[in-house]
Amino acid sequence: MSPGEIELSPGERVLWAGEPVQRPLYVAADGVLALAGLVLAVAALWFLLTREPSGGTMAAAVVVLVLGLYGAVGRSVVRYLALGRTTYAVTDSRIIARSGLFRQKERSSELAGLPAPALKAGPSRTGTLSFGGPGTVTLMGIGEPKRVRDLLTKAIDEAKARQAPPEAGSSAA
Fold first, then answer.
1. What does the alpha-carbon distance between residue 149 and residue 152 come to, in Å, rounded to a whole number?
2. Which of these, 150, 139, 74, 88, lies nearest to 116 by C-alpha position?
3. Is 66 helix (H, G, I), strand (E, B) or coil?
């Protein structure tokens, strides 16, 4: 995402822009879902092959099979492909992620409302920066994650300082 592609508020400036340089096929959060999906898919396939169901039972078993396959591998493949079309930007007031497999959607998180970023190191000097809150933007598979984390930490502190009310007892001259 280049600075020209971002709708900036008056006075807002871009501090960093990038995209995933490493796209993980599986992440730790996929473990339970992938295993559950595999179990569902195998059970549905076994049911379809051994019981020879008909009508509504057949349709239900096929739906369970499809859901199981999606949980086992589909979700990871969709995320992998979507990360290939993902771009990120950090401004002095928010983090922006534009992603989507077929239709690009833009999400943003205000810096002043975020805690310090947590860095999960990846292979080959890549990493993922997350903020722990639901609905916050996560920067997945970025290059130079320590530098971006430090930049974000400073930007978050500055954004919070801009929003802090003036201290009692201080006077503006």
1. 5
2. 150
3. helix
